[in-house]
Amino acid sequence: MLAWQVFVTLASLAGLVAGMWASLNFTKRAAHDSLAQKFSEKETQQDVRLTKIETSLNDVPKRRDLDLIYTQVTNVGSRVSNLEGQTRQNNKLLGAIHDHLLNQKGGGK
Q1: DSSP H or E stretch at residue 92
Q2: Which candidate among 14, 50, 60, 102 keeps its CA 20 to 30 Å from the CA of 67?
Q3: Taking the model in full, what pTM does it have?
């Protein structure tokens, strides 16, 4: 009878230990699976964001394009400078013509 009581006590203790071990390990596994799912979702979101960034970077001007724009802006600047010089020359010429016409009519009267 004593052997039977010892056996039942040891079996209960073994069951309790097995239950605690299973509870701890399965809880860890569930937590791990939850974290893995969250990580997978974050990774998918980052992949989408990265794809959007890469797509938008394809439309950004390259070095060659920027050099071409710089050259064209420089050319426009030099042409504007030439026009400015020509406009000054025209203004001086028109002023001289105006003065000549005023002086020709007898002093502007």
Answers
A1: helix 63-104
A2: 50
A3: 0.41
Asked if residue 15 belongs to a domain, the reply is no
Range of the domain at 91: 62-109
Q: How far, in Å, CA of 66 to CA of 68, rounded? A: 5
Q: Length of the chain in residues, anyone?
A: 109
- What torsion, rounded to 10 degrees, do the Cα atoms 84, 89, 94, 99 define? 130
Query: Residue 29: left if φ>0, alpha if ψ -120 to 50, beta else—which one?
Result: alpha
Q: Give the DSSP letter of residue 107.
A: S
Q: Which long-range contacts (CB under 8 A, 24 or more apart) does 57-60 make?
A: none
The residue among 57, 36, 55 whose CA lies nearest residue 47 is 55
